[in-house]
Structure formats: C-alpha cells, structure tokens
Amino acid sequence: MQSSEQRKRSVRRAAMRADHARNSTRSGPSLTHDERQARSDAFFGKFARVSIRGLPKYARLREAIVAAIDSGYWVSGDRLPTEAELVRCTPFSLGTVQRALRSLVEEGIVTRAQGSGTFVAQSRPQMEAPWHCRFLDAEETTFLPVYPMLVSRKRVSGHGRWSAHIEQGGGAVIQIDRRLGIGDEFSVYSRLYMSAARFAALMTKPVREIEAANLKAMIGRDFHLPITQIGQRVTLTRFPPDVCRVLRLANGALGMLMECVATARAGVNVYYQELYIPPNERRLIVSDSDAAWGVQHKAAAFE
Fold first, then answer.
1. Which residues contact 134 (CB under 8 A, 6 or more apart)?
2. Alpha-carbon torsion 43, 1, 180, 144, what sign?
3. Residues 6 or more apart from 92 whose CB is under 8 A from it?
C-alpha cells in the first residue's frame, strides 16, 4: 500500500508529465556522443533517490527512469542509454535492466527499435473526460488522469455475458480491450462489447483514435446515438488469467468487477462493458449525483 507521500508524488508526477507533453521537444542543438555518455553516467546518481524502498530491483530502476523523463532530463524522442550502459552506471544486472525496460515499453513510456535503441515515447494519449474511471487524487479535489493503451480489437462470435444486454445482429460483436493507467499508480482493465452490425466502422478507425477515445462521446458524435443512461453494478470476483497477465497481478487475483450498460436516447442498449479494478486506495466516483456529500447532516430536517 502506498503512503500519503508516495501518493502525492504520483500526483505530482502526473502533473509534470502533462507539462512535459506540452513541451515535448528540446530546444537547441542535439547532444553529442560525449554529452549523451555523460548524462548516462550521471543519471542514476541523480534520480536513484526517488525509488521507493522495498520495491523489486527492476521497479526501482523503472522509477528512476520515469523520474528522469518527468523532470525533462530525457524528453520525447531522446535515446536512452543502452542496456550495457545501464548495467555499467547502475548497480543492476542485465536481466534487471531488461525487465525494467520491458515494463516501460508495456506502459507506453518508451519505445524500442531493433538495431536503433530505446527512445522516450511521444507524449502518452490521455483519455478525454473519462466516465467510468473517475478516481480522486490524494487531496480528493480532482480526478487522476487516465492513460489508455489498446490491448486488442476484434470481432467475437457466439454468446457471453454481453448477449443479454446488447444487440447481436449476425451473431457477432466487437470487443475492445484496453488497459487504463490511473495516474501512474495502478491500472484498470476495460473490456467493452458493441454490436458488430451497428458499429462496424469502429474496426477501421485508427488505433490511436480508439485507444484514447471516450467511447461514450464518440458514439454520440459519430453514430448519432447520444447516451442518456448508464447502469452500473459491482461484484467482488477473481480476475480471468488474461486480465491478471496484462495488469501484472498474480493468477486468481481478487478485485472489483464493474459491469456497465449504456442506453441511447432511442432506448437502444449501445454497449456492455466490464471494468476489472484491482485493490487500491483511491475513491471512485460512480455517479454525478454527489451533491449530498458536501452537505452537513441536519437532524431537524427529518423531524
């Protein structure tokens, strides 16, 4: 579990990342080979202190690299030190370095090109106005940013839990799976089902558009089906193996399953969605009808 200070640092990290995304290119000439070498040598001494005690070795290195990127030490497009250089300038083995870099690639923070090296990725897409994953920050004054990554997009035949809730013309549905990074603190797995007959155009939209989209808003805008009602229910359950693998949880991990059904103005159920939410310390807002939370209870009102 994260301490209050660790949570605050995660929030500050998200804010710095947003500023970094707006200023993603370094002004001035490119670094020379010697300058890059010097920065590599100095990197761990400068950023190792941000590591949280008790983390596995690969996670400590990952935290240091993320801190360096967030601070602008390396910016979008910069090439990171090679695996051999990271082994030389840190106290970690090659296996640990490779695992840390693999973790950063999976999160979309860096990219790797065979024969070219490892590079800081362009600014990560942030989901516009998320609806179902509105987790409050440490001060509970704003929502944590949501960083989506598309896991898969495919047509699915047959029947499942979605069949009772959405139209399944032709016997097929579109299944869109995304991993939603919540403020660099934890991830939620989203699995969404829609009619393949009605929403076939979603299969040909660019990955980046699908990845970061608020699908509720996209459906209203592109398919003229404004969503007017969303039903939500939650269950404590064990996550499927594929979800555990993507979220890097132990097999059979226990967490919250939120099921959502969205209905359009015409009375049509537009989508069925499953959100697998691991244990965390954040408060999740599930309704806009929260005015009562800011009102002090007055017994006289009920007399």
1. 143, 284, 285, 286
2. negative
3. 57, 58, 61, 86, 100
Instruction: Convert the pLDDT of each residue in 167-176 to its tens digit.
Output: 887 779 999 9
- Residue 155 pairs in a beta bridge with 174
Pick the residue with more confidence: 30 or 169? 169
183-215 confidence digits (pLDDT tens): 878 999 999 999 998 898 999 888 778 877 788
Q: Residues 255-287: pLDDT tens digits?
A: 999 999 999 877 889 999 999 999 999 999 887
pTM > 0.70? no
Closest C-alpha among 262, 153, 166 to residue 218: 262
CA 215, 218, 220 angle in degrees (round to 5)? 115
- Segment 101-121 shows an average pLDDT of 85
Domains for the chain: give ranges and CATH numbers: 25-120 (1.10.10.10), 134-285 (3.40.1410.10)
Cβ atoms within 10 Å, residue 165 = 19
- Angstrom distance (rounded) from CA 148 to CA 236: 23
